[in-house]
Amino acid sequence: MYLALNNLYGPIPSELGNLKHLTNLELSVNQLSGSIPITLGGLPELKILYLYSNQLFGPIPSELENLKNLIDLELSANQLSGSIPITLGDLTELKILPLYFNQLSSPIPTRNRIGGSIPPEIGNVKGLLGLDLSSNHLIGQIPKEFGKLTSPIRLLVQNNSISGNIPGKFVSLAKLESLDLSDNRLNGSIPTCIGDFVHLFQLNLSNNKFGQNIPKEIGRMTQLDVLDLSYNVELQSLSTK
Q1: Helix, strand, or coil (residue 38)
Q2: What's the whole-model pTM score?
Q3: Is residue 77's pLDDT more than 90?
Q4: Where is it found, in Gene Ontology cellular component terms (predicted)?
Q5: Burial of 225: CB neighbours in 10 Å, binned 0-12, 13-18, 19+
Q6: Which of 26, 177, 197, 226 has a CB 3.0–4.6 Å from the CB of 153, allowing a cystine?
Q7: Strand order across the 55-58 sheet
Q8: How many whole angstroms separate alpha carbon 100 and alpha carbon 142?
Q9: Are strands 137-139 and 178-180 parallel, antiparallel or unpaired?
Q10: Candidates 3.40.1390.10, 3.80.10.10, 3.20.20.70, 3.30.420.110; correct CATH number of 9-238?
């Protein structure tokens, strides 16, 4: 069902949950409001769910855990609130999960308001290719379970309130091409294992609280096009040891 860009308004009908053989539901870039109906969790064959760029609010329903065939779940640019359900870790077929804020030019609400910590259960979604949690109200630390994600090429968590260190387990993210952890409250040293991200072309750790030396291992990242470590006031010179 393709109904994107149609100036639709009002709530999403709960009766859509009766379409048991639906594989695609695209309602993005409209003016839909209200909460996400829990009945959408009753669509066992759904693979694509696009609800981004609307005026939806309230929590992400935990009932979405029942969408075992879901590949792409896009909920960005709404007014969603609450925490990220740990049950999203049960969506083992999921490849794309953007929950970010896009700065759109139309009068669509500016951002999601998802808060709380990042659930470690997301590490169970082994085939995830892209995870974008940027521009929300997330707190706590980066889960070490992210190291179990063997396939991601994009990991974007910028503009939150994430604190603590970068987990050493990140070294297992061998296919990572883009890592953006900027505008958070991360501290400690930049781990030397970051030099093992040999496919990385974008690394942004700016505007955090990193200290000590810049690890010389960054020199092993031969594919790197963008490196931004600015606004880390305690960061010192490049290590030569």
Answers
A1: helix
A2: 0.79
A3: no
A4: membrane
A5: exposed
A6: 177
A7: 9-11, 31-34, 55-58, 79-83, 113-117, 137-139
A8: 17
A9: unpaired
A10: 3.80.10.10
